[in-house]
Amino acid sequence: MTRDVDPLPYTDTKPVGAADFYFATNATFRFILKRFGMKGLRRYWADIGMTYYRPVTERWQRGGMTGVANYWRAFFAAEPGAEVEIRETADAVTLDVRTCPAIKHLRDNHREIVPCFCQHCYFVSEAIAEPAGLTVRVRGGNGACVQRFIKREAGEESQDIRHILEAA
Amino acid sequence: MIGCYDFCGHYEWTFEWFRQQGGEPLVREYWDEAIHRDSQIHARELIVGGGIAGMKTYWAHTLDHEAAGFAITHTDNVIRIDMHACPSKGFLIRNGLAQYRDYCDHCVGWIGPMMKDAGFVIDHEHNHCGQCWWEMRSQDDSTPPSAPGGLSGREDVRLRADWAATDATDVYQRATDPDDKTTLVRK
Lengths: 168, 187
Fold this sequence. Notes:
heterodimer; A: Muramoyl-pentapeptide Carboxypeptidase, domain 2; four-stranded antiparallel sheet
């Protein structure tokens, strides 16, 4: 398989990541929230989605829903402790996240989780999806959620942030 | 979702995001406040409370977990780490990721303030190719860093042919501050 068609744009020599890195992601959100407020944290999420994850957007543009599904299959296979069912149709990809690996690891290690932690899945994924003509809706959170990636042209109502639970 | 598999990629990207938001002082604050005092609080508890024994416990677990190529040598007075294949710098090199001017500074960026609180100083050198060495001693111990091979024998990263071929290294001497470094040009 060539690098160009690898579903993940950045690959490592080890099959799964080190879960303790979730500590740093949680701490990074807390630091930004304290320095820049919620507006600044959402800007960080949008910026990382549009720039660092730009190669993901390109995969979704090229591969459509299959590209989206392949990305998330490879993504969650590399996240330790994730339990996720991924369903693909012509019009949508649905992630049924039964065990969020980040929330689980933070909880197992008694870390104080930033309450808005789960919102990052919406804001980062939306920044990745928009240039590919897609959009995402997230419902649930705090350890389990459902994420639907759909075509923007479908005209669904915009994300209601109240549908994303606070983490604890 | 922001995952842990490619953590070092978005971590490095985040350094540059902070630099653009608030300059280098904000990057230093991030390493100290978010990484040292929040993310790595388990390391701080082990090392500030346990000194060299705590360092051995922390790094043996962490570097093994990250699949690093490394060696740890210690006595009652010093702990030395020889990093032959840094997993995070290696990830960045393999994936062509370089947003921030010197990713390697982040290690002293969070470990330095922790060592200061623990009463230790750091002798350290990195070559920006995924290889480095560290010696941590009490701030009251004026012993200079070991000569190549003197403490860790054949495990000493400075004995590698590719270390000797490096154009330049960054050197820290009895440091706890990420900016307290000099660049040693070899060629």
